Amino acid sequence: MRKSLVSIDDLTTADIKEIFKYATSFSKNPQSNHLKGKIISLLFFEPSSRTFSSFSAAVKRSGGQTIEYQNPGETSSLKKGETFEDMIKVFGVYSDAIVMRHPVAGSAKVASDVAGTQIINAGDGVGEHPTQALLDGFTIFSKHKKINNLKGLIVGDLKNGRTVHSLLRLFSKFKNNEIWLLSIKGLSMEPTELESYKQKGLKINLIYKETDIPKDLDFWYWTRIQTERLGNKKIKNTFILRNELIHKSAGKRTLFMHPLPRVGEISEEVDSDPRAMYLSEQLKNGVYVRMAIFKWIFK
Ligand code: NCD
Question: Which of 15, 82, 273, 280 has CB 3.0 to 4.6 Å from 11, enough for a Cys bridge?
Answer without folding.
Answer: 15
